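This part of the workshop introduces the protein records we will be handling. Each record describes a single protein and holds just a pair of labelled lines. Instead of coordinates, the fold is spelled out as a row of discrete tokens. To make this concrete, we reproduce a full record directly below:
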Amino acid sequence: MIHESQAPGELQALLDAAVDAIIMIDHRGTIQTLNRAAESLFGYRSAEAVGRNVSLFMPPEVAAAHDGHIARYLATGDAHVIGRGREVDAMRRDGSLFPAHLSVGLVPGTQPPRFVGFIHDLTQRREFEEDSRRSQARLAQVARFAAMGEMAAGIAHELNQPLSAIATYAQACDRMLDRPAPDLPEIHAALKQVSAQALRAGEIIRRLRHLVSNRETERVSSDVNEVVQELATLAGIDARHNDVTLAFELAPDAGVVSIDRVQVQQVLLNLVRNAIEALEGLPGERRTLTIGTRRLADQEVELYVRDRGPGVQPEVAERMFDPFYTTKRSGTGLGLAISRTIARAHRGTLGHRPGPSSGAEFFLRLPTLEKNPTQ
């Protein structure tokens, strides 16, 4: 704590020993002293800054309102900043801005009051956070491509069907046009089938490109059930190719969430892939998986993937969310680890529990944007 009774030299020595920038101002916002860290951070020598308004260190739009904040505090005692930390933009001598954490305190025993501000440069932390975000995005991209690679055979088979149908109908049209009296209604019907099959193939490719696209994270308000239904095409392809029955249990009141749709769909697709692999070698009646949504209390919604496989062994359950841990012969070990990271980035949770009768149930819980109407 800074006291009036401390000698000026002793006070300055204490200030200069601090790693963060410290600036003391009077009730008019005039700078009275600053430490060496503040000189280094802002690019002003003490002699240049003392006696000037502290708005010297603020961007113009903030500086214009600063004196009014001090005047309001002196008149009302209502403290908006004092005693509370907050993140702000600060300005160096060369006009460049940098992110900073500012905390302001009242110097005790001073009248008129004086204030002391502590400024911590957040530039490195922001750069680290941005690097971490980019690394996470790259890993997520790798995980998406890995999932698509595992689904490649099913996707190729699914695309081959409409392409083969297009070729068949086109050849039929060619034969009918060679007739002396072509049946135009029949040709017209065949061309409609060509168009429909082309749209079917295009929709598969569109959804595939959307899921593997390398793009900036984008949070939008989304109906939970619509997010699941958008994934139905790709999930259905994978299920059919592996002779698995896919069912949906979508609660009508599931709700709306603020999410990156592609990232959340990636989580669900990872869970679907794991469930399909868990069903390998089981008899037909057990080769079923369910994607569902249910509304929870406390403004949460749960998206789940349930299978009727052998379940998760305890030794696997302890490590299955660890990066690079996998029980697959050719797995990357990234799917569940990335999925949990995505869940946490959305202020949600990813977890596992035994299925109601057998198998496993993985769930993703997310905060909703509105209260449960039944509450």
About this structure: The chain has two domains: 8-121, 130-367. Confidence is low (pLDDT under 50) at residues 1-7. Residues 128 and 134 are 10 Å apart (CA to CA).
